[in-house]
Amino acid sequence: MKRLLFPLFLCIVVSCTAHASKTIDEVAWVVGDEPILKSDIETEIMRMRYNRQKIEGDPYCVIPEQLAIQKLFIAQAKIDSIVVTQSQVDMQVEGRLKFFIQQIGSEEKVEEYFKKSIREIKSELARTIEDQLTVQEMQRTIVGSVEITPGDVRKFYNQMPKDSIPVIPEQVEVQIITIAPKITHAEEERIRSRLREYTEDVQSGRADFSTLAILYSEDRGSAMQGGELGFMSRGKLVPEFADAAFSLYEPGKISRIVQTEFGYHIIQLIERKNDQVNCRHILLIPDVDAGEKAAAEARLDSVANDIRQNHFTFEQAVRVFSEDKDTNQSDGTMLNPQNGSSKFEIQELPPDIAKTVYNMHVGEVSEPFTYKTDTGKELVCIVKLKSKTERHTANPDQDFQTLKNMVTSLRNKELIENWIKEKQKETYIFINPEYRDCQFTYPGWIKE
C-alpha cells in the first residue's frame, strides 16, 4: 500500500484531552460546513507534544491548516459517497483500546487516567478513526492507479541532482529450505492435557480464562491482553482457528483443542458482531525432541552435501524437501515483509538467519542450523546466499523499484497538492482573525 502523503493529525491518543488546559470552545475555522474548534487545535497540539512529535513552525498555524486539509477530504468523501465499514472502525478501536490497557494496566486504570468511561473512550475513538479511514480512502481515490513507466523512472533519475541520489545499503537475497522436527506423541499429549486442565478450571470457576492466558499463553502479544485478539474476520485467521472460533455462539464458551501451524490452542468467545468475532485464546507450543531435531539436521546435512556435489540444484531440493509453504513457490527465495521484494538488509533478516548469512559467499550453502520463527516455532534449515549487492549509489539498472517508488510518491504528492489548491477555490472558508496572520503551506485559505 502506498504511503499516504499528508499526516492526518487526528487525536488518536485521547489521553491528551484529559490533561489539556481548559479551552473555551470557540470556532477557529470553518471549512465548508465543518467547524474547527479552538479545543480541536489545543487537543492536537497536546497530542503531538505527548508523543514528542516535532511541529515545524507555529503550531497555531500548522495544526489548523492540517485539520482544514482533513476537512476538505472528508467533505469530498461525503459528496462522492465514500464510506468505511463499521467492521474496519471497530477493529481499530479495539486495537487502540488494547494498547491503552497494555500501557496503563487495566480497563479501570484507563478510565481513571482518561477521566472517562470505556464506553465514552470507544465512542471518541470511533469518530476519530472513522475520519482517519475516510481521509485515507479519499486520498486513494484522488491518486487512483498512477502508472509509472521505465521511461519516467530514467527521466527522473537523469534530472536528479547528484547529491540527491539515494545511497542503497548492502542487500542480500536468501534462499531457504526448512524442516519442522516431528513432535512426539508424548509431547503432543502433554500439551493437550494441559489445555484440557485449563478448560476444566475455567468451566468449574476455579480460574479465569484471561488470567490463565496471561500466565501461560505462548502468544505473548495477546497474552498481555488476557489472550484477547479483538474483532477479526474469518479471512484474518488461519483456517483451523477460524473454524473453531466461528463455531462458538455463546459468549464464555470454550472451543475444543485446535491445532494450527503455530501450536495448540483453546479459544473462548467474547462477542460476535456481524461477520467478525472477538475471542481470547491460549497458545501452547510443543517442545522439540532432541532426537527429532538431530534427525532433521542429519537429513538437511545430506541435502546440502548433495547440492554442493551438484547431484541436484538448491531449487530442485526446495520442491522436494522444504516444508516452508511461504517460499516453496519461489524456489526457496525469502521475501521481505516490509516491502515485498526479495532483497534484505542484513538486520532485516531473522536473527538466526542473519548470523548465518553474514559471512557467506554468493552461491554458498550453509550447514544446518536451528531457526526460531517469530511465532516461536522451532525449525531446522539450510540457506543459500543467492546474491549480494554492495552499498552503492542508486541507479536504474540495479534499483529500478526503489527509484520507481520515489517517482510514484512524488507523482502522488503532486496530484494531492493540486487537488487541495483546486478545492480551496470552491469551498467556503472562514478563519477567525487571530489565525489569519500565518505563512500557510497553501495560501488559498484566505480569499481576497
Gist?
45% of the residues lie in helices and 16% in strands. It is built from 15 helices and 12 strands.
How would you sum up this structure, described in words?
The structure is a single chain. The protein has 448 residues and is of the alpha+beta class. It has 15 helices and 12 strands. The protein has helices spanning 15-19, 38-50, 59-79, 86-104, 107-114, 118-143, 150-159, 185-204, 209-216, 220-223, 239-246, 290-308, 314-321, 351-357, 400-426, and strands at 27-31, 34-37, 167-168, 171-179, 228-233, 258-260, 263-273, 276-284, 369-372, 378-389, 392-393, 429-431. Strands 5-8-7-6 form a 4-stranded antiparallel β-sheet, with helices on both faces. Strand 9 and strand 10 form a beta hairpin. Helix 3 packs across helix 6, helix 4 packs across helix 6 and helix 7 (150-159) crosses helix 15. The protein is flat. The chain starts with 14 loop residues before the first helix and ends in a 17-residue tail after the last strand. GO terms for molecular function: peptidyl-prolyl cis-trans isomerase activity. Residues 169-271, 274-384 form the PpiC domain. Residues 1-20 form the signal peptide. It holds the Pfam family Rotamase. Keywords: Isomerase, Rotamase, Signal.
How many strands appear in the DSSP assignment? 12
Assembly status: single chain
Number of DSSP helices? 15
**Fraction in beta strands:** 15-25%
- The helix fraction, in percent, is 40-55%
Structural class: alpha+beta
Low-confidence blocks of residues? 1-24
Distance between the termini: 40 Å
Q: What's the overall geometry?
A: flat
Lateral arrangement of strands in the main beta sheet: 5-8-7-6
Major sheet summary line: 4 strands, antiparallel
Question: What number is the mean pLDDT?
Answer: 87
Backbone CA Rg: 27 Å
Order of helices and strands: HEEHHHHHHEEHHHEHEEEHHHEEEHE
GO molecular function, one term: peptidyl-prolyl cis-trans isomerase activity
Signal peptide: 1-20
Protein name: Peptidylprolyl isomerase
Organism: Candidatus Enterocola intestinipullorum
